[in-house]
Design a protein that fits this description.
The chain is α/β, with parallel strands linked by helices. The chain has 3 domains: about 50-225, Rossmann fold (3-Layer(aba) Sandwich); about 245-470, ANL, N-terminal domain (Rossmann fold, 3-Layer(aba) Sandwich); about 475-570, GMP Synthetase, Chain A, domain 3 (2-Layer Sandwich). Helix 3 (about 50-60) packs across helix 4 (about 70-80).
């Protein structure tokens, strides 16, 4: 039997340690409540509330379960005709989206999806992706996000790790998914649900699944506890690791602080151009829906097409990885001027290091709209740099968002001094519990309740953090630790460089030596000697590349991280 409130209160103060933990939790709860109230007020959400609609929503929700899926239902009551989702020719109001989510949830429930079930999804950016995401959440199930660019053996590995009960896949990837299922020995053909085209023989059509449901809400399931989404890490240094995020670990002080500082608003029209199967893009989409805004999906990134979409849909906010920012900023000024982007109030970037020169070029073209945040699938949102701060403090990832306790530690676990590099560990209420079926990786990433994804950083005396490198990317040359990002930042300052990546390669004399891989700007032809001399103007000789290779593009994950192990093999 679950202990009653008096017993729980007595247990909370049974010892000095328990009392301290209880008081700290109460203080954190009060802080989060104040931050949430500030975020709601600054977003303008309060001004949109309709008292009668609120009353109907409250009556309809009596006795129902709580969870983030209530956000969608709330806005369907409060502003049913407000535009919720734009996907090419599809335009859905909040009432339309709510009904479609309910039909999908009923259809999946009829197939046996229940609280705790795992549902894998493998699609590009499309409205069906978000519909499935909401429906799975509404059932209390776990959404397993698979990258659609993966090959069958890679998908098979993820299926073996996650063991979903069904796989919802876009028609163009159905045969690839089917091959992966056979390789993994996971899922039958009838467990495949195909979106947007004819399914393979024996598989189900998504349209048929929806047709089995109705527009009313399914029976309530409490979706606050347990994993709601499983995201696999990018795998830049090895096999991807599954990180399961619970809904009750996703809506805390750092998120409210982020909403307020970035200035997200209820009238935002948010452009989602990055793949929805990673962490940041769907997080920003969910924040937009939390405030009652509109989400516009772009299926494939193209720099000029993105500007045209910003103009056509009057986009006010978007999330882009630094590579996308660089590609847009590299467009000819006449091309940029051809489009009216005056509606754009904020561009949020993250997922990979932001070169200071890329930030400068982008803001020179679009104004002070750039917000750079640091975080990870495992940690949630950790730091935030506001417009102008990247120029004032080149390379900064900003200061800690509320609720994050950050430590920079050396290899022995001792705190480092300001300006000294240390592995970045963070503790917050948003941390994942660990890596799925990988206790060794979880232990390796955890120290005294703090979590690290292997990034090395410094902090100045004003509390601004700067990424130095990933720990796995560090180069040891002649016994000296070298952090490639410092060199990459310098190379990005050269007017002929679009992208740069620096890696270490074996060297018989020095152990490792530095090789720079350069993507020149269109029409530019810098020489290797010129770029090495440019580095030597501001960097010690031992930090300068010994060799420069020119390449048409850098190997990257879909979230923009450079896959340096591929470059090391070329070097």
């Amino acid at each position: 039997m679950k202990p009653g409130l008096p017993q729980r209160l007595r247990a909370s103060f049974a010892s000095p340690a328990a009392a301290r933990a209880t008081l700290l939790a109460a203080r954190a709860g009060a802080r989060d409540a104040l931050l949430a109230a500030r975020a709601v007020r600054s977003s303008g959400l309060l001004t949109t509330l309709q008292p009668r609609a609120l009353a109907r929503f409250a009556l309809d929700s009596v006795g129902g379960a709580r969870g983030p899926s209530l956000v969608l239902r709330f806005h369907a009551f409060n502003a049913p005709d407000r535009l919720a989702l734009v996907d090419d020719g599809t335009r859905l109001s909040y009432a339309d989206l709510e009904a479609l989510v309910n039909r999908t949830a009923h259809g999946l429930r009829a197939l046996g999806v229940a609280r705790g079930s795992r549902v894998a999804i493998m699609m590009g950016n499309c409205h069906e992706y978000l519909v499935v995401q909401w429906a799975v959440t509404r059932l209390g199930a776990v959404l397993v996000q698979l990258g659609y660019r993966l090959k069958p053996p890679e998908i098979a590995f993820l299926l073996e790790q996650s063991r979903p009960s069904c796989l919802i896949v876009a028609a163009e990837y159905a045969e690839t998914a089917l091959a992966a299922c056979r390789t993994a020995g996971q899922l039958r053909v009838e467990d495949l649900i195909v979106v947007g085209g004819a399914p393979p023989a024996g598989a189900r059509a998504f349209a048929d699944v929806i047709a089995r449901g109705n527009a009313s809400a399914p029976p309530p399931v409490d979706a606050r506890e347990g994993a709601a989404v499983m995201v696999f890490t990018s795998g830049t240094t090895g096999k991807p690791k599954g990180a399961s995020r619970s809904l009750d670990r996703s809506l805390h002080g750092a998120v409210a602080d982020f909403i307020h500082k970035v200035g997200l608003r209820t009238d935002d029209r948010h452009l989602c151009v990055c793949p929805l199967y990673h962490s940041a893009p769907p997080a920003l989409v969910m924040l937009t829906y939390g405030l009652g805004g509109t989400c516009v999906l772009q299926r494939h990134f193209d720099p000029e097409a993105t500007l045209a979409l910003i103009e056509r849909e009057r986009i006010s906010s978007t999330f882009m990885v630094p590579t996308m920012l660089g590609r847009i900023a590299a467009l000819p000024p006449a091309t940029i001027a051809r489009y009216d982007t005056s509606s754009l109030r904020r561009v949020i970037t993250g997922a990979a290091p932001l070169p200071s020169e890329t930030a400068r070029r982008f803001e020179a073209a679009f104004g002070p709209v750039l917000y750079n945040f640091y975080g990870a699938t495992e940690t949630g949102m950790v730091t935030l740099a506001l417009p102008g701060e990247h120029s004032a403090r080149p390379g900064t990832i900003g200061r800690a968002l509320a609720g994050n306790d950050i430590r920079l530690l050396d290899d022995d676990g001792r705190p480092v001094a300001p300006g000294e590099p240390g592995e970045l560990y963070v503790r917050s209420s948003m941390l994942v519990a660990g890596y799925h079926q990988d206790d060794a990786a979880t232990r390796s990433a955890t120290r005294d309740g703090y979590f690290s994804v292997g990034d090395v950083a410094t902090v100045d005396r004003d509390g601004y953090y700067f990424l130095a490198s990933r720990k796995s990317d560090m180069v040891i040359s002649g016994g000296v630790n070298i952090y490639p990002q410092e060199i990459e930042q310098r190379l990005h300052q050269h007017p002929a460089v679009l992208e740069a990546a620096v890696v270490g390669v074996p060297d018989p004399d020095w152990g490792e030596s530095l090789v720079a891989f350069i993507v020149p700007l269109d029409g530019a032809a810098p020489s290797a000697a010129e770029l090495i001399a440019f580095c030597k103007e501001t960097l010690a000789d031992f930090k300068c590349p010994r060799r420069v290779e020119f390449v048409p593009s850098l190997p990257r994950t879909p979230t923009g991280k450079v896959i340096k192990r591929e470059l090391s093999g070329r070097g």
